[in-house]
Amino acid sequence: MIILNNQDFKVRNDAKTDIEDRGYTFGDGVYEVIRVYNGKFFMLDEHLQRLQFSLNEIAISYDVESEKLQERLEQLLEQNNVVDGAIYLQITRGIAARNHPYPKKSTPELYAYPIPVSRPLEAQQNGIGMTLVQDMRWLRCDIKSLNLLWNVMAKQKAHEQGYKEALFYRDENHVTEGSSSNFFGVKDGKVITHPANNYILNGITRIAILRLCEQLQIPVEERELTLAELEELDEAFIASTTSEVTPVVNIDEHKFNDGTIGEVTKRLQDGFEKLIQL
Ligand SMILES: *Cc1c(COP(=O)(O)O)cnc(C)c1O
Q: Which parts of the chain are coiled coil (predicted)?
């Protein structure tokens, strides 16, 4: 079953929209990827809050609560028997003749359907490599917008060079985040990550990790990391809905911790593992 606006479709190809959906023409919409473990949503409230934030920031009038989106998503899980996977959901400004200003009358278009996701166990055991890519995105990275062009290009660059993820840096100086993940460094037992402002997308996994750090009494500094500091880190890892906590063992040629997984990263991986036993 897939959700399209107010309807549920059994067969995915029956769910159709218009080529003039502003999602296609302008990327005028927002999205979420929500993880499901043991048949239950992981941090659904936080995802729905962030979705409402993204909608508000681009002035799409859709009220997550009054549309009872949560209930519909719970149904979607049940109907599709999703046990271990994820739901992709997007809301666009709707269908209108192609013209830049917001249409006077358009109804937001929503769709949501299950996507297969499996835990990246190999990457979590062995760590991944990242490559630095200049952050050429716009300055509202805090909105989970459908416009992912530079994210896509950066990820492609990384893959072409044999790295799993790109690490963005801005102004020839500080690192921001990964192309689809948040970045964390560890120095002298402290976790350092970019503050949740307009330069990064505040990941739900990032939020989970900051809570974990508090529980485990691991000190956190939310501040910019410079490129010079990057080389001096003891450990590094990325976090996202699909990568969970994945250690980073090298950035370009530079290796951390002799290419092995650091102690703080390991503690957070173990802590996260407990969180997802829903
Ligand atoms: C979605 C996303 C993340 C990770 O967010 P999660 O909610 O943890 O999945 C990080 N950075 C970018 C650019 C993203 O789009």
A: 59-86
Please check whether residues 186 and 219 belong to one and the same domain: yes
* Residue with tokens 């299950």, as numbered in its chain: 114
**Domain termination site, one of 115, 149, 179:** 115
Domain end among 92, 115, 138: 115
**Domains held by the chain: number:** 2
Closest CA to ligand 1's atom 12? 180
pLDDT, position 170: 97
Single pTM value for the model: 0.97
Mean pLDDT, range 154-168, rounded to an integer: 98
E-state strands within the chain: 2-4, 7-9, 29-37, 40-41, 85-92, 109-115, 128-134, 165-170, 174-178, 182-187, 190-193, 220-222, 225-226, 235-240, 244-251, 254-255
Q: Starting at the edge strand that comes first in sequence, how are the strands of the sheet with 29-37 ordered?
A: 7-9, 2-4, 109-115, 85-92, 29-37, 40-41
List the residue whose alpha carbon is closest to atom 15 of ligand 1. 180
Instruction: Report yes or no: 142 and 197 within 8 Å, Cβ to Cβ.
Output: yes
- What local confidence, expressed as pLDDT, does residue 87 receive? 98
CB of 146 within 6 A of ligand 1: the answer is no
pLDDT in tens, 200-238: 999 999 999 999 999 999 999 999 999 999 999 999 999
Mean pLDDT of the chain: 97
- Give me the residues paired with residue 109 across strands: 92
- Residues 77, 215 within the same domain: no
pLDDT at 278 over 90: no
Q: Which residue has the tokens 């993204």?
A: 54
Report CA(100)–ligand 1 centroid distance (Å): 27
Handedness of CA 158, 241, 192, 226 (dihedral sign): positive
